[in-house]
Amino acid sequence: MSENSRLAEPHVMHTYGRVNIALERGQGVRVWDTQGREYLDALSGIAVNTLGHNHPKLVPALREQIGKIIHSSNYYFVPGQEALASRLVALSGLTNVFFCNSGLEANEAALKLARKLGNERGYKHPKIVVCEHAFHGRSLATLSATGNPKIHAGFLPLVEGFIRVPFNDFEGLKRAVENEPEVTAVFFEVIQGEGGIHPARIEYLQQVRALCDARDWLMMLDEVQCGMGRTGKWFAHQWTGIKPDVMALAKGLASGIPIGAVVAGPKAANLFQPGNHGTTFGGNPLAMRAGIETLRIIEEDGLLANAERVGAHLQQRILATIGKLPGFVQLRGQGLMLGIELDRPCGALIQQAADAGLLISVTADRVIRLLPALIFTQADADELVERLLPVVREFLEQSHD
Ligand SMILES: *Cc1c(COP(=O)(O)O)cnc(C)c1O
């Protein structure tokens, strides 16, 4: 795939191994490429296009906003920031929001909050606990927090101050911090996305919450991929009854307009003072409008319940079909964030599925990842399985461990 991109785009840096497709337009959960071929979109730009493509309520609102003002500056009040922040606060039960432009930026802000707390406490080497197989982004700090040696490679030395522990292992976490007096935060994904769709156990989240309370640490959750309704609740941690102190959001928050947000509760909301953090583009009127409209449409159209219902149906269809194939290992995830683990590396499936008119991704080498838009219907789910099943069957027949 990378040879392809080298030939097709000689002036673009070679950072992606691309699938040999260029998408030109979309409608709902369908997209069309520059050759006019149609695809069922089960990836939504990696959990970004929450409302699918060309949504009839979103697009007119964005058109109107572009005609008014796209960008002003954080020199001035941006009314959309307070409007979107108050919605996120109401939905999360937290108190204050900082807006930025991407997932890594939201995570970077979270990491800075934890550092700031450590500095305020007079710690010489404040530490943040992070998890193996985590993915938090590609900046120096967020790649250092990421638990994947492939993402570290070439960028050593890592930013210091992270303690890496196994995911979903509370005893392991406790052991790792036994002789660490300067911990300020624990930071992890509620469902590891890039790591292969691994949900945190409810009990683990509750135990970490209790430990953070007992030790006065920040509990910081990366909900960049699993948040914004994907699991059937606004935020994935809301299945557990706990509340974090800090939550990072991005991907699905504004249906494709770049955005990030770090949402904080009382323990973290006042750590940043004027001059401590900022961004030029973050929180601009267009992104705020896209976020406000996305939340409104999710609510008006009952898309949380839809994600839960269609997700359950999709899980059941997958188990009844792909789940019966030799080579199937496990189906994981919740709502419309699903991973189908196979017993062998299956990156080739991305192109093969595309050739069969279906957009998916493969992560952690062996996991087919499905992240359809929250408007996905049961009929779309049935079609997804109809298209995916023969592709996976043929792949398993023709490849070997
Ligand atoms: C995608 C992702 C990020 C990084 O987001 P960018 O917008 O690509 O910087 C961080 N954390 C998680 C869990 C993600 O899925």
From TrEMBL:
Cofactor(s) in the UniProt record: pyridoxal 5'-phosphate
Q: Per the UniProt entry, what species is this protein from, by scientific name?
A: Lampropedia cohaerens
Family assignment? Belongs to the class-III pyridoxal-phosphate-dependent aminotransferase family. ArgD subfamily.
In the record, what terms sit under GO molecular function? diaminobutyrate-2-oxoglutarate transaminase activity; identical protein binding; N2-acetyl-L-ornithine:2-oxoglutarate 5-aminotransferase activity; pyridoxal phosphate binding
Which HAMAP family does the entry link to?
Answer: ArgD_aminotrans_3
Name used for this protein in its record: Acetylornithine aminotransferase
What other note does the entry give for this protein? Answer: May also have succinyldiaminopimelate aminotransferase activity, thus carrying out the corresponding step in lysine biosynthesis.
Modified sites of kind N6-(pyridoxal phosphate)lysine: K251
Q: Which NCBIfam families match?
A: argD, PRK01278.1
The record's keywords, sorted A to Z, are: Amino-acid biosynthesis, Aminotransferase, Arginine biosynthesis, Cytoplasm, Pyridoxal phosphate, Transferase
**Presence of the UniProt keyword Transferase in the record:** yes
UniProt-listed Pfam families: Aminotran_3
Associated pathway: Amine and polyamine biosynthesis; ectoine biosynthesis; L-ectoine from L-aspartate 4-semialdehyde: step 1/3; Amino-acid biosynthesis; L-arginine biosynthesis; N(2)-acetyl-L-ornithine from L-glutamate: step 4/4
